[in-house]
Amino acid sequence: MPGELAMPAAPPQRYHVRARVVAHEPLGGKYRRMVLEAPQVAAHARPGQFIHVDCSQGWVPFWRRPFSLSGRSGDCISFIYAVVGPGTRNLAKRRLAEEVDFLGPLGNGFHLHPTASPLIFVGGGYGVTPFFWLLEQAAGRAVHLIHGARSASELLRAAPNGAQVMYTTDDGSYGERGLVTDALRRRLSSPSARQAAVYACGPRPMLRAVALLAREFGVPCQVAMEELMACGVGGCFGCAVKVRGAYRLVCRDGPVFAADEVDWDEPA
Ligand SMILES: Cc1cc2nc3c(=O)[nH]c(=O)nc-3n(C[C@H](O)[C@H](O)[C@H](O)COP(=O)(O)OP(=O)(O)OC[C@H]3O[C@@H](n4cnc5c(N)ncnc54)[C@H](O)[C@@H]3O)c2cc1C
Ligand code: FES
Is 249's C-beta closer than 6 angstroms to any atom of ligand 2? Predict the structure, then answer.
């Protein structure tokens, strides 16, 4: 079935970690990258999974904040975040050697199709971050990354290595004017994309449009959903989405789902 995911046979390994910050750098615009030393998490994590980070100062914000993993190197994991509110503002103040408290790796990751070509990654806004790591996994294969945002200030322009990158902005302030789905439609219309597979992460309306395009062109598609989260571990039911007629939790059963299994017409 297009986009179907193999569910892991073993229960996922999750840890509650206090990890040392080993790098923390600006990436341009409102984006920053944090590298944490977390050997157990690094050993078990995969692209598409996320960590749930305590970003509080005092009690604010009360809930942890979710961030997709963007890479692994030795004993370290990394994530890229946009500074948008109280939690990420606190996070931006963390210095080298300080400790960051987080849960992870959480959720299920992407499964790269073994033979599809090209692999097309579509990232809307900060939804591009998991593709930095997925690109490493796809080394040696034909990959196209389409990264879009409303305007240039919301794009992450620190392009990952190893991909042809196309940027789009709604207002035309950087790259091509238009939506990522305009660029995706053109790419899928090419005869060379008949065996393509699509992987997308971003806001729900974008994921819905990508899923419909993949269905129209008959190519497999997986989506990483970004529902608002509280507990992050399946306890509060705050992140429920309808998948194949039943409610599933984005934090526990996702965030990656086969696009054709999500009930896109159900309100989030
Ligand atoms: C599975 C998952 C993975 C994520 N990965 C990343 C990542 O890799 N990098 C990154 O920068 N961000 C990521 N996010 C979003 C990130 O969690 C939020 O930006 C963060 O929680 C904001 O916290 P804050 O306290 O700074 O701001 P808040 O005040 O909590 O939020 C600021 C603004 O962003 C909106 N917002 C917050 N969370 C979301 C969301 N999930 N979807 C849509 N709008 C939201 C709020 O409504 C508000 O308008 C991810 C979210 C999920 C669910
Ligand atoms: S965030 Fe609580 S169940 Fe998913």
Answer: yes
Between CA 70 and CA 148 the distance in angstroms is 17
3-state secondary structure of 6: coil
Q: Which residues of the chain have pLDDT under 70?
A: 1-11, 162, 267-268
Helix (H) or strand (E) holding 16: strand 15-28
Domains and CATH numbers, the chain: 16-106 (2.40.30.10), 119-224 (3.40.50.80)
Q: Please give all residues whose beta carbon lies within 6 A of any atom in ligand 1, as ranges.
A: 50, 61, 65-68, 79-82, 84-88, 126, 129, 226-229, 255
Q: What is the pLDDT of residues 1-30, one digit of tens each?
A: 455 565 555 567 899 999 999 999 999 999
pTM of the model: 0.94
